[in-house]
Design a protein that fits this description.
3-stranded antiparallel sheet; Ribosomal Protein L30, Chain: A; alpha+beta
Length: 63
């Protein structure tokens, strides 16, 4: 079984005042507050959420 690639995502800006679907993407990624970091699998659905709210995130690939 091959190991799934992962990416590390950190929330760098507040979700307050953002579009509801952008807030939902941040919540779906498991991010809670500014500075919170999560490691998620690099799948097409996760990549889509990351791309939608990339202006609020710091992304590190290859974890």
């Amino acid at each position: 079984m091959t190991k799934q690639k992962q990416i590390r995502v950190t929330l760098t800006k507040s979700v307050f005042g953002r579009l509801k679907n952008h807030q939902a993407c941040v919540k779906g990624l498991g991010l809670r507050k500014i500075g919170h970091t999560v490691v998620v699998e690099d799948t097409p659905s996760v990549r889509g959420m990351v791309n939608k709210v990339s202006y609020m995130l710091q992304i590190i690939e290859g974890e």
